[in-house]
Write a structure and sequence with these properties.
By secondary structure, this protein is an alpha/beta fold. It folds into two domains: 65 residues, Chemotaxis Receptor Methyltransferase Cher, domain 1 (Orthogonal Bundle), CATH 1.10.155; 213 residues, Rossmann fold (3-Layer(aba) Sandwich). Helices cover 41% and strands 19% of the residues. Helix 5 crosses helix 6.
């Protein structure tokens, strides 16, 4: 195959854009078309193909399902970090989470469910797990909650104190970032935003890297999920989908907003990126702005 790039005409580019939109909902308009073309050239070289149509035939064939997944994976920008957007996390921990715990305590509902949609390499769901475990410890002390019988001497104490059961679903469209997230191994530059006390409690030092402790890993379940799919993980108290909807057009954003509304438990919160908004898309959420951060709470119809 020639080292020179394959030229795409307008019809070919629109055909590829339509395929990507149909599969995952991402839109590549004029501002982002160069990114799509660049990723296409990489995959053409990797597959040793010298024409767009030969690659397109591969993508749309039964034998090309794996290559289609690789292409979609290459189109995602997996930018993430620990404790990203601190004001929004303060709103989550100090307002939304406290509200949920008070409400659940009155009902003696000790379960807490969170969905990190578009989790990338895992820093977001692990951050949420750390914040939740810390908050539950203080909450139990303040409310003198019943504690389960002491564990055997050799068993480590659970990070989420009894009687609470915490489940964090972390999903992404990229298998490679999910593998990295499940491994939970981070460089020191990736760990810069993690407070020293958190490092001691939730991480082990492995050579020059930090590894998420198994006790924290047990709280987070990583799984593949395409937000375009109809699957609806149900009854979550919180959903984080930050800096994902910016890649979708208005129709897909509205569809995704409706999906999140159905996936949230009554009174649940949706957290999106600071450059994103639900205001023109739905009237089923109320905006909450506290601690310098913004979130959206599911509104319930009047009784």
């Amino acid at each position: 195959m020639s080292a020179s790039p394959v030229r795409l005409n307008e019809s070919e580019e629109k055909l590829l854009q339509a395929l990507v939109y149909r599969e995952c909902g991402m839109v590549f308009d004029e501002r982002r078309s160069h990114f799509l073309r660049d990723r296409l050239q990489r995959r053409l070289r990797a597959c040793a193909l010298d024409s767009f149509y030969s690659y397109y035939r591969l993508l749309t064939s039964d034998a090309g399902k794996q290559e289609l997944a690789i292409l979609l994976e290459n189109l995602t920008v997996n930018e993430t970090s620990f404790f990203r957007n601190k004001p929004q996390l303060d709103l989550f921990q100090k307002v939304a989470l406290e509200q949920a715990l008070e409400r659940k305590c009155k009902r003696q509902d000790w379960s807490l469910r969170v969905w990190s949609a578009g989790c990338s390499t895992g820093q977001e769901p692990y951050t949420l797990a750390m914040l939740i475990c810390e908050t539950l410890g203080f909450f139990n002390v303040r409310h003198s909650l019943p504690v389960a019988a002491a564990a055997a001497p050799l068993e480590p104490r659970p990070l989420a104190p009894p009687p609470w059961r915490v489940e964090i679903l972390a999903s992404d469209i990229s298998y490679s970032v999910l593998r990295a997230a499940a491994e939970g191994l981070y460089t020191q530059s990736q760990m810069e935003a993690v407070d020293y006390s958190y490092r001691l409690r939730f991480f082990d030092r492995v050579g020059e890297k930090s590894a998420v402790k198994d006790a924290l890993k047990k709280i987070v379940h990583f799984d593949f999920h395409n937000l375009k799919a109809g699957f609806l993980p149900q009854r979550h108290d919180f959903i984080f989908c930050r800096n994902v909807m910016i890649y979708f057009d208005a129709a897909e954003q509205k569809r995704l907003t409706e999906k999140f509304h159905r996936c949230l438990a009554p009174g649940g919160y949706l957290f999106i990126g600071h450059a994103e908004t639900l205001l023109p898309l739905t009237e089923k959420f109320r905006i909450v702005h506290q601690c310098g951060g913004t979130a959206y709470q599911r509104m319930e119809p009047p009784e």
